[in-house]
């Protein structure tokens, strides 16, 4: 099997090489945007595997945004490529529940497993001439743009559930973070306590084995975190080597 590693998908030599191969079908998975002069080469078309139930969460970070927004379900979609990103006719979809214990990492792994199955199924349907592509309902479309550093910073003046979902949706990468005494603390796991806040948003409530932060409407317990330059650890181990005083404000 030949392997091509072009610096740019717009290289004419790449398109020429693919035409010489005369492919029946191109399958794109976790790849860059294919230009029209490439995805129109195969006689049966080109399709992509996307990690959402299109038309919801079109864009670069569908797994993250589905969890950040508190969705209870996500999935994968195969669809024929066209020039506008993630808008082509849908071939197959498979659904996956998002549980309270899931984060971006666990959902990624679940979708990878089911995605492999749906890609093979899609190839078989196209090969047999049994594929029935359908257009996407634009009224249901939503974006899933790339996530930048500023979007990872926790705003403690938001509701606890929203912050909890942000932490889940950014774990393990790129990770939600807050600041304490000028240091970056990445937070990977949290727990909804259901208890009312004990101070202004961002105020820490500390015991030798626990760390809770006041939000707009409740206390949020921090379960796993990481100081910059250190390894990730559970909160009890973290507090043995890092000092946060009750009443201090994180932000």
Structural features, described:
The chain has 251 residues and is α+β, with helices and mostly antiparallel strands. It has two domains: 12-140, Formyl transferase, N-terminal domain (Rossmann fold, 3-Layer(aba) Sandwich), CATH 3.40.50; 149-241, Formyl transferase, C-terminal domain (Methionyl-tRNA Fmet Formyltransferase, Chain A, domain 2). It has six helices and ten strands; from the N terminus they run H-E-H-E-H-E-E-H-H-E-E-E-E-E-E-H. It has helices at residues 12-21, 36-39, 62-68, 104-127, 160-169, 235-241; strands at 26-29, 46-50, 73-80, 90-97, 176-180, 183-192, 204-207, 210-214, 219-227, 233-234. Strands 5, 6, 7, 8, 9 and 10 form a six-stranded antiparallel β-sheet that branches. Strands 1-2-3-4 form a four-stranded mixed β-sheet. Strand 5 and strand 6 form a beta hairpin. Helix 3 packs antiparallel against helix 5. The model has no long low-confidence stretch (mean pLDDT 95).
List the helices and strands and how they pair.
Elements: H1 12-21, E1 26-29, H2 36-39, E2 46-50, H3 62-68, E3 73-80, E4 90-97, H4 104-127, H5 160-169, E5 176-180, E6 183-192, E7 204-207, E8 210-214, E9 219-227, E10 233-234, H6 235-241
Parallel strand pairs: 1-2
Antiparallel strand pairs: 2-3, 3-4, 5-6, 6-9, 7-8, 8-9, 9-10
Helix pairs in contact: 3-5
| Beta strand % | 15-25%
User: What is the CA–CA distance across the termini?
Assistant: 52 Å
CATH superfamily caption of the largest domain: Formyl transferase, N-terminal domain
**Topology as H/E string?**
HEHEHEEHHEEEEEEH
What is the domain total for the residues?
A: 2
Q: Give the integer mean of the pLDDT values.
A: 95
CATH architecture of the largest domain: 3-Layer(aba) Sandwich
Q: Tally the helices: what do you get?
A: 6
Report the count of strand segments.
10
Biggest sheet character: 6 strands, antiparallel
Low-confidence stretches: none
CA radius of gyration is: 22 Å
Q: The CATH topology of the largest domain, please?
A: Rossmann fold
Class by alpha and beta content: alpha+beta
């Amino acid at each position: 099997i030949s392997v091509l590693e072009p610096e740019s998908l717009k290289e004419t030599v790449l398109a020429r090489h693919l035409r010489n191969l005369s492919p029946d079908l191109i399958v794109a998975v976790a790849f860059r945007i294919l230009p029209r002069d490439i995805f129109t080469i195969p006689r049966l078309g080109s399709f992509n595997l996307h990690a959402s139930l299109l038309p919801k969460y079109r864009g670069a970070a569908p797994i993250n945004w589905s969890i950040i927004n508190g969705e209870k379900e996500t999935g994968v979609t195969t669809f024929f490529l066209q020039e506008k990103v993630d808008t082509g006719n849908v071939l197959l979809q498979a659904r996956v529940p998002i549980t309270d214990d899931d984060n971006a990492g666990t959902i990624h792994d679940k979708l990878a497993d089911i995605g492999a199955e749906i890609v093979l199924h899609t190839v078989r349907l196209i090969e047999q001439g049994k594929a029935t592509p359908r257009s996407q309902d634009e009224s249901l479309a939503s974006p899933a743009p790339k996530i930048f550093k500023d979007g990872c910073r926790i705003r403690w003046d938001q509701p606890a559930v929203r912050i909890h979902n942000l932490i889940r949706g950014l774990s393990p990468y790129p990770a939600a973070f807050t600041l304490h005494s000028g240091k970056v603390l990445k937070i990977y796991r949290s727990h909804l306590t259901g208890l009312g806040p004990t101070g202004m948003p961002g105020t820490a409530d500390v015991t030798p084995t626990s760390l809770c932060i006041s939000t707009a409407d409740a206390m949020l317990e921090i379960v796993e975190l990481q100081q910059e330059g250190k390894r990730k650890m559970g909160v009890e181990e973290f507090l043995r080597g890092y000092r946060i005083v009750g009443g201090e404000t994180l932000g």
